[in-house]
Amino acid sequence: MTETNTPTALIMIFGATGDLAHRKLFPSLYRLYKKGRLTDRFAVLGVARRSLTLEEFQESVRKSIVEFTGEQDGLDEFASHFYYQSHDVTDSSSYIQLRELANKLDEHYGLEGNRLFYLAMAPEFFGTIGDHLKLDGLTDTAGYKRLVIEKPFGHDFESAQELNNRLRQAFSEEEIYRIDHYLGKAMVQNIQVIRFANALFEPLWNNRYISNIQVTSSETLGVEERGRYYEKSGALRDMVQNHMLQMVALLAMEPPIKLNTEEIRSEKVRALRSLRPMSQDEVNQYFVRGQYDEGTINGESVPGYRTEPMVDPESNTETYVAGKLVIDNFRWAGVPFYIRTGKRLGSKSTKIVVQFKDIPMNLYYNTDEKLTPNLLVIHIQPEEGVTLHLNAKKSGSGMKTTPVRLSTASKSIDRMNTPEAYEKLLYDSMRGDATNFTHWDEVALSWKFVDAISAVWENTKETTFPNYAAGSDGPQVADQLLEKDGFEWWPVENLEIDNC
Ligand code: NAP
């Protein structure tokens, strides 16, 4: 099936021998190609230091496709569009060669000067590459020029601003596509559809009917080989500054006047601006942290964080964060948004639970059990779908109630697996749709919010670390955070989607 919207582009991937390129970018490009969303008018120019022949590089592309998609239909033809230059990005002299190769490919494939520069590399190189792309004329092109940039975008507000100012010398804000791959996930994109396309929900989406919202993103994996990076990042910078706050913004934003990039982004910015800032004294009342100890996951013993490779044996880095966000606007005054995210937890799951307020009077107190509140659960990953938790009459005589669920899994809607986030984001960046990328204003506000927390945590040694066992639900302090408000976390394992 060929779509009408089939962009042409030279896709220049910096870091083309790396993990992201092999696991996500090459397979995503292949899927786009198979769906006809990429025609023959595209070329990929891979850049990395190791010396590879063209054949070796194309072979590495083929291998990645077979490994990660399990397919090989049309693979030779697809891989023939891939080119490689061995190049140290800190070496100024090799950019000229890169420009010449880019110009040749442009002409050969009729790419109309369209260029997508994808930085799939460590962030310390982002600024240098941006400088050279402009200085050595790679951005001097007749078509569009866009920069797609991986996380992390800075380490705090100051470094993010410095990076942004530097990149803005070569690219305008509209040309910078900052990846937050959560925004490419089908069910994250579905948040706005659920909210704005259902008469059932929009009238209830406020502090009159919602009691609290819980966003959970838990992983079973530890830090693996990323100890060096993670020691400086921690869960706060790695997950909260970007993915968690982006989900909160989508849940909290006002309906945009139109579904276009500018309107959606500006509503998200307004939602982030409404986050109540915390004073230093308030940080530990609203946010708690954890670090995993050894434990058991899926029957296997796993080490504690402090004994992972490249991790300080007395590390103060948090591998778990839970927090209460207060949104100071008319819609949300009085409704806490709770977030939690961590590594080495009992299950891998990203879910949003919207808990509705109890009905004003319970007519069914004659039953043994209390009525359970209505919940709307949005399953982001690994399951994708929506569940509505209601109360209904228990079968048999009498008027006892029982909780029931209405579930829809996206597999049952589309009858296929939803596309991988990177596939959608690559396609959007080639089409020039920046809706699902983060605007600088969002990045800046998120960093400012998170910086207030890190300023306190980095200056106080957490003496209770490690404070949760690998394979558990996280530290007790996270439960206490909600107990103070009379709530509790909805256990993710009890919210699984029903088979539809
Ligand atoms: P990686 O596996 O370490 O790959 C880094 C790439 O950069 C390699 O191709 C490496 O190739 C190249 N490289 C390093 N120094 C270079 C230099 N001086 N000049 C030219 N090339 C150089 O890293 P990754 O996991 O793919 O991550 C890349 C980026 O994506 C990072 O910003 C990361 O935070 C982000 N990210 C990754 C994932 C993921 O799933 N992997 C997910 C989200 C975000 P040579 O050694 O051959 O030079």
UniProtKB/TrEMBL annotation:
Enumerate the InterPro entries for this protein. G6P_DH, G6P_DH_C, G6P_DH_NAD-bd, NAD(P)-bd_dom_sf
What is the protein's given name? Glucose-6-phosphate 1-dehydrogenase
Entries under Pfam families matching the protein: G6PD_C (PF02781), G6PD_N (PF00479)
Q: Where is the active site?
A: 243 (proton acceptor)
Annotated binding of NADP(+), by residue: 49, 88-89, 151
Q: What organism does the record attribute this protein to?
A: Peribacillus deserti
Q: Kindly list any coiled-coil regions of this protein.
A: none
Q: Which reaction does it catalyse?
A: D-glucose 6-phosphate + NADP(+) = 6-phospho-D-glucono-1,5-lactone + NADPH + H(+)
The Glucose-6-phosphate dehydrogenase C-terminal domain covers which part of the protein? 193-490
Task: Quote the record's binding site residues for substrate.
Answer: 181, 185, 219, 238, 343, 348
HAMAP family per UniProt: G6PD (MF_00966)
Q: What does this protein do?
A: Catalyzes the oxidation of glucose 6-phosphate to 6-phosphogluconolactone.
A single Gene Ontology MF term assigned here is: glucose-6-phosphate dehydrogenase activity
**Similarity comment: family membership:** Belongs to the glucose-6-phosphate dehydrogenase family.
Q: Which residues form the Glucose-6-phosphate dehydrogenase NAD-binding domain?
A: 12-190
* Keyword presence, Oxidoreductase: yes
What pathway does the UniProt record associate with this protein? Carbohydrate degradation; pentose phosphate pathway; D-ribulose 5-phosphate from D-glucose 6-phosphate (oxidative stage): step 1/3
User: For this protein, what is the EC number?
Assistant: 1.1.1.49
Q: Where is the signal peptide?
A: none
Q: Which keywords annotate this record?
A: Carbohydrate metabolism, Glucose metabolism, NADP, Oxidoreductase
**Known NCBIfam families for this protein?**
zwf
